[in-house]
Design brief:
This protein is mostly helical and 56 residues long.
């Protein structure tokens, strides 16, 4: 039992997988924030162009 516990403590594969998952989640949140901000800016720009051209 002591050897099993020692091997479990030394095993880092589970922690590594969790770390990679957290990194992927952080990158996803950053991408979503950038795309959301860019989409809002583009929507405003096209709205201004449409107004300038006399559209509704």
């Amino acid at each position: 039992m002591k050897k099993l516990f020692a091997r479990f403590v030394k095993d880092q594969s589970g922690a590594t997988a969790i770390e990679y998952g957290l990194i992927a989640a952080g990158i996803s949140v950053a991408i979503i924030a950038v795309v959301n901000g860019l989409g809002t800016k583009l929507n405003t720009t096209f709205g201004n162009i449409s107004s300038s051209l006399g559209g509704s």
